[in-house]
Amino acid sequence: KKPFPDHLPRERVVIEAPATCACCGSDRIVKLGEDITDTLEVIPRQWKVIQTVREKFTCRDCEKISQAPAPFHATPRGWAGPNLLAMILFEKFGQHQPLNRQAERFAREGVELSLSTLADQVGACAVALKPVHELIRAHVLAAERLHGDDTTMPLLAKGGGGTVTARLWTYVRDDRPFAGGAPPAALFRFSRDREMAHPNGHLAGWTGVLQADAYGGYNDLYREDRAPAPVASALCWSHARRKFFELADIAGQIRKKRPAHEVSPIALEAVSRIDALFEIEREINGLFAEARLAARGEHSLPRVNALRDWLASERGKMSRHAPVAKAIDYMVRHDRWAAFTRFLGDGRICLSNNAAERSLRGVALGRKSWLFAGSERGGDRAAFMYTLIVTAKMNDIDPQAWLIDVLARLPETKVSSVPELLPWNWKPITAATRKAA
Questions:
Q1: Strand 232-235 relative to strand 209-212: parallel, antiparallel, unpaired?
Q2: How much is the CA Rg of the chain, to the nearest whole Å?
Q3: What is the per-residue pLDDT across 23-73, written as a single tens digit (0 to 9) for each?
Q4: H/E/C letters for each residue in 268-291?
């Protein structure tokens, strides 16, 4: 067991010492030392009402009334403090606890807050936090290379009769693999369906390298006549490897009660060859783009060329209906192979799109808890809050602590000072700092 953190307060509970010797009964005993047993305990959450009193004074000469101005709330005409608001937001979007469950928990603790009241506060916080969200959005779209992906998000159908499959999109800026220096951030967007109009709108005016899967909805971004310029496609080798791995997974075939001979030796060899490329990438991760490019030219390029020749040779020997043939075709199609090998000419490009998939991991976990979005407005709010929380996590910041401080400071923060509240610039104001200010 790891020792308990030093920053936790310690409460000493001293057991009454014996007055006489346990052996002979003599009272001539002296203290020799002590043994300490540490037990971790938690103090139940406490609720309180803060009453801000503004005293009124009247002038004996002019009879005018003087009074200090009312303090700003985190939300307009708000009644909830920043700690409570941040807890509600993080529990819902960071810990996947729906508002109805939070309301039930609050009621058991003696505080009645209705579901609609909590939902109103989520909306009010989204409005209050919009300046910070806009700066994150601008930062993400200023990147020369983005990871893009999407996942399903059940949406309550109009009329309440079941759900429809909506989408949550993510665009991730992460320059750390090539020591780019720019802080990592994620931008989420919600849509009712998966039509290609959505990524076109999300990335309107943006140019650069988009790392994604082979979803056809991105194809308009790659068109030569796109304005202001076409987006360069870099496809994900993890997706390609996955198709071979499913055919080479012996343990998986056993779980599915399939005979061992259905395991494809060609798929097994393909997985081995692709794994060699990932091993090279692990060695150069975090180096500058120039060093990554040089290493790829020396080590990855020969392996990629050999893989292409071997796949083409094996493909010519099999039926187009063979499962492994479909996995090969996914990669070696002429319009895709150039996108799969773009990383060989650009040291900034990653071999996989795992950065985007990691940003969506919380959504995939949360679906089992909150089940569906209640409306399109709810989906938009979810995308808004995921942008803030995931970006904070990517910068190794506690999202709840950050939200508490940002909600408390935003009402009195000048527009020019809002960038100081971004996760990568944020420095929490301690009680001592606030007192000195």
A1: parallel
A2: 29
A3: 998 988 898 899 999 999 998 889 999 998 999 999 999 989 999 988 888
A4: HHHHHHHHHHHHHHHHHCCCCHHH
